[in-house]
Amino acid sequence: MTTTQDKAFLETEKGDRIPCLFNPTALQVTRVNQWAADSPAGRSMPRLRFAGPRSGTLHLELFFDTTSEGGAVTGHTSKLLGLMEPDASLPGADEASGNVRPQWVKFHWGDLHSFKSVLTSLDLAFVYFAGDGTPLRARADIVLTQYEQDAAFGPQNPTSGTPKPHRVHRVAPGETLDRIAAAHYGDSTRWRDIAAANGVEDPLSIRPGALLAIPRLDR
After folding, report:
1. Which one, of 83, 69, 87, lies nearest residue 21 by Cα?
2. Is the pLDDT of residue 153 over 80?
3. Which comes out higher in pLDDT, residue 140 or 43?
4. Is the pLDDT of residue 155 over 70?
5. pLDDT confidence of 86, banded at 50, 70, 90?
6. Where are the domains of the chain?
7. Among candidates 174, 180, 154, 196, which has minimal Cα distance to 56?
């Protein structure tokens, strides 16, 4: 359950944090299974055949207002626009072959942690301006599409969050998964639970500043 102190934010693949100035009022999660119809002769109704699932989507509207700060709201909205841009510094990127993609993100809000996803749609509207034309308020309608199967959100139930989610840990320089597990569970051997909850395949790949969901474990 979230409290008034819980602020939603987007965590980027590089470990950056994009805060939401105001929490969303609604989240829309969509899952679609594909079914194909076989229509053999002599049968009035086709029998459906399961053709696999499609990627889940998370649709939310974010509101940004900097009238009290005095600066342009573009300081916040430009970070969202940046998530639509291919990033050649990501692992595996190859500009020569055109194999470059935008970074993936995760949405966090209290105990809710989304699947690993990419920003596939951004509808940005500036709705209030200062007298000199500086934009001060903006509304961002975004769609996050599941990038890969991610245990942090669950392959079947995108609203469940991490398995019994508890908190988020920011990786400090020099920290390893076993050290983090020891700090939260008192047992360094439980690092695999953290790795599974965050879709970490290589425990040596975690970077300082990255955010890890720490699941509450069954005792």
Report:
1. 69
2. no
3. 140
4. no
5. very high
6. 1-35+52-156, 162-219
7. 154
Fill in the DSSP letter of residue 153: T
In whole angstroms, what is the distance from residue 103 CA to residue 86 CA? 7
The helix (H) or strand (E) run that includes residue 166 is strand 165-170
Backbone angles phi, psi at 180, to 5 degrees: -65, -40
Element (H, E) at 184: helix 177-185
pLDDT at position 5: 52
Task: Note the helical H segments in 8-56.
Answer: none
Q: Are 107 and 168 in contact (CB under 8 A)?
A: no
CATH class for the region spanning 162-219: alpha beta
201-205 long-range Cβ contacts below 8 angstroms, 24+ apart: 203/176, 203/177, 203/178
Output the pTM of the full model.
Answer: 0.63
Equal fold, 1-35+52-156 vs 162-219: no
- The three-state secondary structure class of 72 is coil
pLDDT at site 200:
81
Which token pair is 87?
A: 């990033």
Pairing of strands 135-146, 117-129: antiparallel
46-67 pLDDT, tens digit each: 778 888 888 889 999 999 999 9
Residues 6+ apart with CB under 8 A from 20: 7, 8, 9, 10, 62
Record: fold of 1-35+52-156: Elongation Factor Tu (Ef-tu); domain 3 (2.40.30)
